[in-house]
Specification:
The protein has 194 residues and is α/β, with parallel strands linked by helices. The protein contains 5 helices and 7 strands; from the N terminus they run αβββαβαβαββα. The chain is 48% helix and 18% strand.
């Protein structure tokens, strides 16, 4: 009987060891994911900090489909050679709604002078974003990043955020919140032009 009881305990011990091993592997995997996330966030924040320090870091690339669904993906590299205003937004973002008319007026003022404007709708549904564009009568180029795959590399901490890229593809200014007036946009564009 004792031999039978001992042999019955072996599968339980093996099962406990397997469960413990799986739990440890899960914890190790989560820890590795946490370390990876922290390192990438610090790297992305480093990008924003470099802009603030006046270091003009290379802007992270992107290749995204137009929000209207038509045409090939647009990349930042395809806009090289001209200053670019990159605005990250989402249709559910109240500050994005407030700054939309300022961006459209700045676009009307600067696009004839060779400045490209790109709106990147992220973490959003394309249908909602298209309604936002129509409602706010936005006419500059709009791209869609539904999953938000570009956000981390740009160091975004929220919506909206706007970056000013010079003709060399270097980030020269950053507005990390809602744009308050057109002069903020003009200042960033002038930095990108100089």
């Amino acid at each position: 009987m004792e031999a039978s009881a001992a042999s019955g305990r072996r599968p339980i011990r093996v099962a406990r060891r397997v469960a413990t091993g799986l739990a440890l592997a899960l914890v190790a995997g989560l820890l590795a994911l946490l370390v990876w996330d922290v390192m990438h966030k610090e790297s992305a924040q480093g990008f924003v900090n470099q802009i603030a320090a006046g270091d003009d870091p290379a802007a992270p690339g992107f290749s995204l489909k137009p929000l209207n669904g038509g045409g090939p993906p647009v990349s930042l590299a395809s806009l090289r050679g001209r200053p670019v205003v990159v605005n990250f937004w989402a249709s559910w973002c109240a500050p994005c709604k407030a700054e939309a008319p300022l961006l459209e007026r700045a676009y009307a003022k600067w696009h004839g002078k060779g400045v490209a404007f790109v709106g990147i709708d992220a973490n959003d549904f394309a249908g909602d974003a298209r309604k936002f564009v129509v409602r706010h009568d936005l006419s500059f180029r709009m791209l869609h990043d539904g999953s938000g795959s570009t956000l981390g590399r740009w160091g975004l901490t929220g919506f909206p955020e706007t970056y000013f890229i010079d003709a060399r593809g270097r980030a020269v200014d950053h507005i990390g919140q809602q744009i308050q007036n057109e002069s903020e946009i003009d200042t960033g564009i002038r930095k990108a032009l100089s």
